[in-house]
Write a structure and sequence with these properties.
alpha+beta, Heat Shock Protein 90, 4-stranded antiparallel beta sheet, 9 helices
Length: 482
């Protein structure tokens, strides 16, 4: 479970980091495109402003003669859409119209600065006058701010997302309203036009909302991460299952070999008496038949006894099945970290625990260690846990508990394997460790006997008892490791 949670957390972090990187790249691209458009707009506006100065400078240079027929400047609005009107003031004349005073002041400023000067700036209505002082004739152009740049060349369309405006002395004329409200990211651009006579600032703003992020790319990345992590998890599960199968096979092989030792000892003990009796009866019958005259009746009785003992030996052999040898463990003892060994043993039976809905609990100090032969110890613990799971299968799922509790008692370490199964009948308890005795149908009756022998070979002991309020408890005692 911890490994699964770690993988899920890693997948979430990787998906979030990748999505943030994708979103950041998209926002950087949007910012770069916006700033490029803003620079283009600034250049276009600056070119128009410089063009206004050039028009006035050209008119002042040409200085056409008097007369109504000599007013070519009146044709300028047809050539330049942003020029709404052209006025001129000849020597000793005054500027016409309601804005004469403002034009006269601008003419004086133009003569002093020797360049065009602004007059009557009406930002709200989107227009202003640009005056060029000259002799004998001065000129003034009324410029339309909205037509500063032709629509075909403008980079910020009026129905676009970006807002663009011209600002003069705190007053603003919108050229493109855009969309600047709402949550998200805001990009700003501000720059003064490259014309001293027309001190306007171009201000542009772009708002990128959450809905404009590249969600498809981020979803694709997250899906790819999820698939990758799922593949890693599947690979780890396969590796874990393969390792578990290899460990079970190893323990099974060692168990079968150890059982061979038990069977060999049982065979030697149980076959010794009938074989000795067969030999004695056959020898007696041989002597009786050699006598003169031969005692055939007595010899026949001896032969009958020999047959009976042979049948007894045959019955013993009929009870023997698959076997395994028990290695000598006494000389191979070594310090063993108990907590890690118990976790390895539970790992081997994890599928069976999951099938039964059993959540084993380990109660063991992290530093607790004992002297044991690793394979023999794992075989004992595996056998005890397997027996506990068999017992738990006989009780309702909600009542199944399995606890592995380890404590240091003096120089020894005691491991208790406790289950909440049906328990051990009182009449069965004394015979529990007898070879070939089993209460489970189809069992050989060698598992607990083998475990007891392995524990004794490591200088320890294995005992069984009733667990309160219900179940069985097996206590394995071995020397502690210092």
């Amino acid at each position: 479970m911890r490994r699964t949670l770690t993988l899920i957390a890693a997948a979430v972090l990787l998906a979030a980091a990748g999505s943030a990187w994708i979103a950041r790249g998209a926002l950087a691209d949007r910012r770069a495109a916006f700033e490029t458009d803003a620079r283009i707009a600034h250049r276009l506006l600056s070119q128009r402003a410089v063009q206004h100065e050039a028009i006035l400078a050209t008119l002042a240079l040409l200085q056409p003669g008097g007369g109504a027929e000599a007013r070519p400047e009146e044709r300028l609005p047809a050539l330049y859409p942003q020029v709404q009107q052209v006025l001129r003031r000849d020597r000793d004349d005054t500027w016409p119209g309601n804005e004469a005073a403002a034009l006269a002041a601008a003419e004086a400023a133009s003569r002093t600065a020797r360049r065009a000067a602004l007059a009557a700036v009406d930002v709200e209505r989107g227009r202003f006058w640009l005056v060029q002082a000259a002799l004998p004739t001065s000129y003034a152009l009324r410029i339309d701010l909205d037509a500063f740049v032709p629509a075909g060349e403008w980079t910020f369309p009026r129905d676009g997302a970006a807002r663009a405006a011209l600002e003069h002395e705190g007053r603003v004329r919108l050229l493109a309203p855009g969309r600047v409200d709402g949550a998200g990211w805001r990009f700003d651009f501000a720059k003064h036009l490259a014309a001293e006579s027309q001190p306007f600032d171009l201000q542009a703003t772009l708002r990128v909302g959450w809905g404009e992020l590249p969600w498809a790319a981020m979803a694709a990345w997250s899906a790819a991460v999820a698939l990758g992590v799922a593949g890693i998890a599947a690979w780890q599960r396969q590796r874990t299952e393969r390792r578990r199968a290899q460990e079970l096979l190893r323990l099974g092989q060692v168990g079968r070999l150890n059982a061979l030792g038990e069977l060999a000892a049982g065979m030697a003990h149980e076959l010794n008496q009938p074989l000795t009796a067969v030999l004695a009866n056959v020898q007696a019958a041989e002597r009786l038949l050699a006598d003169e005259p031969p005692e055939t009746d007595t010899a026949r009785g001896a032969m009958a006894q020999a047959v009976a003992q042979a049948r007894r030996a045959s019955e013993v052999l009929a009870r023997l099945r698959r076997t395994v040898e028990r290695p000598e463990v006494g000389a191979a003892l070594q310090p063993l970290a108990l907590g890690a060994a118990l976790k390895r043993a539970l790992d081997l039976v994890e599928p069976e625990c999951r099938r039964l809905g059993v959540a084993p609990r380990i109660d063991c100090e992290a530093t607790l260690a004992l002297q044991a032969e690793p394979v023999a110890f794992e075989q004992i613990v595996h056998n005890l846990i397997s027996n506990a799971l068999h017992a738990l299968a006989e009780v309702p799922a909600g009542e199944r508990t399995l606890v592995l509790q380890a404590r240091a008692e003096g120089e020894d370490v005691v491991l208790a394997v406790r289950d909440s199964g049906p328990g051990i009948a009182p009449e069965v308890l004394p015979r529990l460790f007898e070879p070939f005795f089993s209460t489970r149908r189809g069992g050989l009756g060698l598992g607990l006997s083998l475990c007891e022998t392995l524990a004794a070979g490591m200088g320890g002991s294995l005992v069984a008892a009733h667990a309160a309020p219900r179940g069985a408890e097996f206590r394995l005692t071995l020397k502690g490791a210092r």
